[in-house]
Amino acid sequence: MKHITSDQNPQIKQLRMLRERPARQRDRILLDGVHLCQAWLQHHGQPECAVVAQGRLEQSDIAAILALIGASRILCVPDVLFSRLSEVESHQGILFVAARPVPALPDLVSENAVWLDRIQDPGNLGTLIRTAAAAGIRRLFLSRGTASAWSPKALRAGQGGHFVVTLHEEIMPETLLPRLAVPLAATTLEQARSLYDGALPQQCVWVFGNEGQGVDPALLQAAGLRIRIPHEQDRVESLNVAVAAALCLFEQRRQHGAVG
Description:
Helix content: 25-40%
Pfam families: MRM3-like_sub_bind, SpoU_methylase
CATH architecture of the largest domain: 3-Layer(aba) Sandwich
Strand content: 15-25%
Largest sheet: 7 strands, parallel
GO biological process, one term: methylation
Keywords: Methyltransferase, Transferase
Shape: elongated
CATH topology of the largest domain: Alpha/beta knot
Family: Belongs to the class IV-like SAM-binding methyltransferase superfamily. RNA methyltransferase TrmH family.
Mean pLDDT: 93
Distance between the termini: 41 Å
Number of helices: 9
């Protein structure tokens, strides 16, 4: 374990530069807090670097995390310095620096998947990732114009869901549509059938659209299945996108007998 006390230390300067860079432009991700660090260790193994506040070294959950990391990867800093590095106002005293996953697009998409089209709110995005993971989805595509999946708010809302799915960002319709070997199912209020009328396909790519504008017209046109969720439209115009996704994904799961 390396102890650092100066904010002029080269490693600390690099961490501060990373923190100040917009999430979309980072080649490394910051995982702030006990739960995210635990989830990364469980699913990806060692981080590039672990930073811990000196005052939290004896805290049991943090000590357990550090025990799983090679000592050469751990930086211990004063609490005040840690506060300057953390992206969370009420930090928990530990953060990881890890390589940002950039998986290659599959040649063919033949599995159940989710396509998030220009989702703007990072909290919604993180909740959608967490919901999809809970419903058994293993792959998500994020259209260009969607918030960064690796922003602090999206990571916190995802609660570790990011690490059990494969995330493809900056997706363009012309790149992904030709690769689909399963139906495209879009949620919309226009020319759509009820979610509860008839069987849903066992495998499809669900499209959930922008909070204000909905699904891109080009994706709607390509969709073989257009789904609406019955609700009191005279009282509420539309549902939150994460709520809509949860209803669709878990209705599909119910219909096809998934357990767990």
